[in-house]
Amino acid sequence: MKILIINGPNLNRLSQRNKNLYGKLSLKKIEQMLRKEFPKIKFELFQSNHEGEIIDKIQSTENEFNGIVINPGGYAHTSVAIRDALEIIRIPKIEVHLSHLAKRETFRTQLITAAACDGYIAGFKEYSYIAAVYLIQKIIRGKF
């Protein structure tokens, strides 16, 4: 099984952001945590601050990956283009957010991209990624 983890803008600076909202781990540490938790799964991690690069990556996934975990960052609230790219592909997709969006600013509660995914997880910091990978496995195996 091969899962793509896509991270959007500013997540490359995760360890410098508000730790109460986003947790204490960098993307590298989250990657290490995923590999340790799911040793039989092949992961590819991708991060970009550019909308077009994220769209290109999504469009290249169907024949190479079994599922996608995406944290679109701020694009979750603004990008119809990323939503459309997600909607087209037919592999399981779960959106994750580190912070608890319902406790944040009103504009963060509007999720454009999540509607094109099988579901979304928010508020569990780095454990949002673990929950998403667990659920993608269930979806792929038809046990969800």
Describe the structure.
The protein has 144 residues and is of the alpha/beta class. It contains five helices and five strands, in the order E-H-H-E-H-E-H-E-E-H. It has helices at 19-22, 27-37, 51-59, 80-88, 127-140; strands at 2-7, 42-47, 67-71, 93-97, 119-122. A five-stranded parallel sheet has the order 2-1-3-4-5, sandwiched between helices. The longest helix has 14 residues, at 127-140. The radius of gyration is 14 Å and the shape is globular.
For this entry, give a set of tags:
144 residues, alpha/beta, 5-stranded parallel beta sheet, 5 helices, 5 strands, 33% helix
Number of strands: 5
Please trace the helix and strand order, writing H or E for each element. Answer: EHHEHEHEEH
Number of helices: 5
Helix percentage range: 25-40%
How large is the share of residues in beta strands?
15-25%
The profile of the biggest β sheet is: 5 strands, parallel
Using the CA coordinates, give the radius of gyration.
14 Å
Strand order of the largest sheet: 2-1-3-4-5
Shape category: globular
Low-confidence stretches: none
- Structural category is alpha/beta
Q: How widely separated are the two ends? A: 17 Å
